[in-house]
């Protein structure tokens, strides 16, 4: 079976993301791993200016285990509602002290994780893709897709997914992953490239990419180009008007998505994004 990693800090937003992760687990017949990472004793001392004592850290450790187990119990009920009895996912609980990034690398390998689900503490999902410290850490260290779920997400089904492409090779791996999900959810997959007027510098990359795209056998896939100078505003508008439940993209350190952040109008548009975002690392395995 596949394995979904649900990261939690026990906040309300994290609980909402965990609920969505449990729904995905039941649909994908994937086992669920709930994980919480908390500070090491030495780190706690440095953050607290030396005022922490060992008993405090031990209590923190026990509370982490307790809350992870409580979350697992609540998700068990949700999984039972959606999954067939013969394919009911197993839920495993883990907590560990230390740096979230380092712990993430270890648990991905140890548990053979296929997908990571996490909530945005505040604001929107796309805000945290670029500015949230925990989310940035996860994306930086992950070799698996990361699903960032904003607060108050209530999705009963996935019927439409928008994937933003810049014709990079890494986009192909991401689309193959989405194609696999589509075979289960049967969603419409719309691939979008937004380009400034008169920008024809990527004709060769575009031709190679669209030829590869035409070879895919997924029946519900479409490709569209949209001309515009405010890329993210166009993308957000498209997701809203088409009632898309999920936005997906590949995160490159020097991608056009990152370069867009230098524009204040783009930043405002990003903050308006309200749907979950699946971020694929360029090093997707």
From TrEMBL:
It comes from the Bacteria. It holds the Pfam family Usp. Residues 1-150 form the UspA domain. InterPro entries: Rossmann-like_a/b/a_fold (IPR014729), Universal_stress_UspA (IPR006015), UspA (IPR006016). Gene3D superfamilies: HUPs. Belongs to the universal stress protein A family. This is Universal stress protein.
């Amino acid at each position: 079976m596949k394995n979904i990693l649900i990261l939690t800090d026990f906040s309300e937003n994290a609980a909402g993301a965990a609920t969505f992760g449990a729904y995905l687990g039941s649909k994908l017949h994937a086992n669920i791993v709930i994980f919480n990472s908390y500070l090491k004793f030495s780190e706690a001392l440095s953050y607290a200016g030396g005022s922490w004592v060992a008993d405090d850290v031990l209590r923190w450790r026990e509370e982490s285990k307790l809350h992870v187990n409580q979350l697992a119990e609540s998700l068990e009920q949700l999984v039972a509602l959606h999954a067939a009895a013969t394919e009911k996912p197993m839920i495993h609980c883990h907590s560990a002290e230390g740096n979230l990034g380092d712990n993430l690398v270890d648990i991905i390998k140890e548990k053979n994780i296929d997908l990571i689900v996490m909530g945005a503490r505040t604001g929107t999902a796309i805000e945290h893709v670029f500015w949230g410290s925990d989310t940035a850490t996860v994306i930086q260290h992950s070799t698996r897709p990361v699903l960032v779920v904003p607060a108050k997400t209530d999705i009963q089904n996935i019927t439409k997914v928008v994937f933003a492409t810049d014709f990079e090779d890494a986009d192909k791996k991401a689309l193959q992953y989405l194609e696999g999900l589509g075979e289960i959810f049967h969603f419409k997959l719309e691939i979008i490239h937004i380009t400034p007027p008169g920008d024809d510098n990527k004709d060769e990359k575009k031709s190679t990419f669209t030829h590869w795209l035409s070879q895919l056998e997924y029946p519900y896939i479409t490709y569209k180009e949209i001309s515009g100078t405010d890329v993210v505003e166009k993308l957000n508008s498209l997701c809203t008007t088409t009632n898309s439940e999920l936005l997906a993209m590949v995160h490159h350190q020097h991608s056009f998505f990152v370069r867009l952040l230098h524009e204040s109008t783009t930043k405002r548009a990003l903050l308006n994004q309200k749907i979950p975002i699946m971020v694929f690392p360029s090093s997707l395995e």
